[in-house]
From TrEMBL:
SMART domains assigned to the protein according to its UniProt record, in alphabetical order: CK_II_beta (SM01085)
Family that this chain belongs to: Belongs to the casein kinase 2 subunit beta family.
GO MF term set: protein serine/threonine kinase inhibitor activity
Composition skew (Basic and acidic residues), residue ranges: 242-252
Function in brief: Regulatory subunit of casein kinase II/CK2. As part of the kinase complex regulates the basal catalytic activity of the alpha subunit a constitutively active serine/threonine-protein kinase that phosphorylates a large number of substrates containing acidic residues C-terminal to the phosphorylated serine or threonine.
Skewed-composition ranges (Acidic residues): 253-262
A cellular component term, taken from the record's GO annotations: small-subunit processome
Source organism, top-level taxon: Eukaryota
UniProt source species: Hyphopichia burtonii NRRL Y-1933
InterPro entries associated with the record: Casein_kin_II_reg-sub_N, Casein_kinase_II_beta-like, Casein_kinase_II_reg-sub
SUPFAM superfamilies: Casein kinase II beta subunit
Descriptive protein name: Casein kinase II subunit beta
Subunit structure: Tetramer of two alpha and two beta subunits.
A biological process from GO: DNA damage response
Length: 284
């Protein structure tokens, strides 16, 4: 018995997500793609945008090969034929468009839920840093502009960025995940921060350090642990207050100068006060 062609047909999105090296991607809901609001501005970044969109949605798209294999290399063909993309260019445009849509989808509620499921299953891999104790990584892009840099992996425990261990992921554009997704995922799922807090409190990082004949290497040394302060977390109440103050801005020199002026003014007023004054003399 011959199987039905419609039953054997695999949608384009499913083929893309199941392709080798595309394990970081999640299937984008078709309703999300069909909403023009979610695609605002993408037509300026993707060549043959309309044809690429139809390809993603599994519509029939006419290519240059369907018209005799002639592209826009000159000749007496009509303008419509000359503007048709070939199959290779159409496939590239469809992948680019889907990647940019994917970056917007994973910061929506259903997209965050789908990516959180992958994060929970450790499909993005563990952090290679020893003190992070296998903390699950999150894909991130250093920029939202496609074609600039490949995907990186962010560790919410040490706040550092790593390259994927397998070379199969080194050709994935970082813009397909964007710069917003990791921070939004951590804030939407507080249990991620709890996991990081457990790992931080479990290990005393002062127990290990570079030593020479039993003496620890100073942090100011050229070979010292100069990046250690980046992974320090506030423990005391005053440290947490300082962290909250400096989280969104850097204290300016003017604020420090104002604090010094206020303290000096208080000291001067204290010196000028006469200890022998009474309430009666103050009234005069």
């Amino acid at each position: 018995m011959s199987s039905d062609p419609e039953e054997d047909y695999i949608p384009w999105i499913q083929q893309f997500c199941e392709a080798f090296g595309h394990e970081y991607f999640v299937p984008v809901a078709q309703d999300f793609i069909e909403d023009d609001f979610n695609l605002t501005g993408l037509q300026l970044q993707v060549p043959y945008y309309r044809e690429a969109l139809y390809t993603i949605l599994d519509y029939q798209v006419e290519t240059a090969e369907d018209n005799g294999g002639h592209t826009s290399n000159g000749g007496s063909g009509s303008k419509g034929k000359n503007e048709l993309p070939n199959k290779a260019l159409l496939a590239h445009s469809a992948e680019l468009l889907y990647g940019l849509i994917h970056a917007r989808y994973i910061i929506s509620k259903p997209g965050l839920t789908a990516m959180a499921s992958k994060f929970e299953k450790n499909e993005f891999g563990p952090c290679p840093r020893f003190y992070c104790d296998g903390m699950h990584l999150i894909p991130v892009g250093s920029t939202d502009i496609p074609g600039q840099e490949t995907v990186r992996l962010y560790c919410p425990c040490c706040n550092d960025i790593y390259l994927p261990l397998s070379s199969r992921y080194l050709n994935i554009d970082g813009a397909f995940f964007g710069t917003t997704f990791p921070g939004l995922l951590v804030k939407m799922f507080p249990e991620i921060e709890n996991q990081c807090r457990i790992r931080i409190n479990k290990v005393n990082q002062d127990d290990f350090g570079l030593k020479l004949f039993g003496f620890k290497v100073n942090e100011l040394s050229a070979s010292g642990p100069r990046m250690k302060w980046l992974r320090m977390h506030p423990q005391k109440i005053d440290q947490k207050k300082e962290y909250d103050t400096c989280e969104l801005k850097i204290p300016s020199d003017e604020e420090n100068e104002d604090d010094e002026d206020v303290s000096s003014a208080v000291m001067e007023s204290g010196l000028n006060d006469d200890d022998d004054k009474t309430m009666a003399s103050e009234g005069n």
